[in-house]
């Protein structure tokens, strides 16, 4: 979908979305539409509540026009997230009407700055317009092809264009992440995931290096290898580097994404119902790859290295088994109590690697790690474990910009006791309770006290409903949050990125 700022004259517009506040402000709306709104409001047929949609047609001077009125709620309570949600509903209405081109009226408000406003409009519409139909013979689903944003004041055009450029970059990155998650495990396996990262590196200008089994062995990544060895697909360590601040090479943000291109559970095998969706177990990888494309495209002045330890967790004569004791790149020994707790094993070697070999000074890992996070927080909030409150507060503030909700789990020392093994340094299972915390803290054992955030996206990485700007399947969660987190650490220490003004 193509979204651009446009000056088309009112008379030439066929399909238009007109935003309306519940409390009346509508000075930018032409008189005849205003008259319709007033009549509808008097009859209580359309009140302008946030996300409320009303469709009508009218005879234009030259054209037969189709108008979608879109409620924005009370201006006082307007937020970026409300704008995203509202505009996604207008988009869905336009899709239902099988429109191809749509004009969308920009609006004024003191509550959300113009850059955030355009970003929220673009994101809400484009993300709701996403469709994954690579495999449908009959590609029936209608999508909107062009969106023209009209009514942007001349003096605002530069700023609004800047916002739109950033939004378009993030939208593309989220589409990429959703595609990677939605593709099945017979097309996305370590080699093809690595290839896609390489293609994107070329397209967006970041460096990609891919290590195969020999190099992984040489690095002594025994934890990663143990998970990988049950599969015929060779594991790949995908390393992506972007140096946007060469003068400050000792500040490197490390992003680590879980890249299980399939998780059967291994010998601790999953029931079929839980296994079907396990092609999504590389959503963390998809998020870091997507974020790298935007970080690079937007020339963020930061040094970022992203690492994905990509492999499959399967069963074979070579697979690792419950009861095995393995080592890790850091040299700590691990007793395997459950082969389905595999993500943390791949992540600890990736985390150790990114600190030791890529000199990361802060680390964020993002992973579809535990079913327990879904039990605790549901499907709309990402669970976080951290060793650093300041880093967490950065995350909290960018999460308000991205619209991706986060919640911090407690990480008291008592929980660390639960991952100590009787016969090895650690065990890969923390017992029955507090599974998200013990899984996170297992990774925390390998971060060497540098600021670290662990994002468990098992609940938020995919959606089982089509709702607001989410579509069924991969959500692309993490792309925006990682992007803004990287941007915040270098460009907007005070107020976050794109907050007002
Ligand atoms: N990939 C799964 C976690 C998961 C569950 C992701 C549901 C998305 C939806 C992970 O590897 C896993 O199997 N975790 C186990 C851990 C347990 C054995 C300690 C789980 O959550 O059941
Ligand atoms: Mg598993
Ligand atoms: Zn997994």
From TrEMBL:
Binding site for Mn(2+) 1: 263, 340, 342
Any single GO CC term annotated in Swiss-Prot or TrEMBL for this entry: cytoplasm
Record: active site: 270, 344
Residues reported in the UniProt entry to bind Mn(2+) 2: 258, 263, 281, 342
InterPro entries referenced in this protein's UniProt entry, alphabetically: Leucine_aapep/pepB, Macro_dom-like, Peptidase_M17_C, Peptidase_M17_leu_NH2_pept, Peptidase_M17_N
Cofactor: Mn(2+)
Cofactor note (record): Binds 2 manganese ions per subunit.
Subcellular location: Cytoplasm
EC number of this enzyme: 3.4.11.1, 3.4.11.10
Protein name per its UniProtKB record: Probable cytosol aminopeptidase
Species per Swiss-Prot/TrEMBL record: Clostridium frigidicarnis
Source taxonomy: Bacteria, Bacillati, Bacillota, Clostridia, Eubacteriales
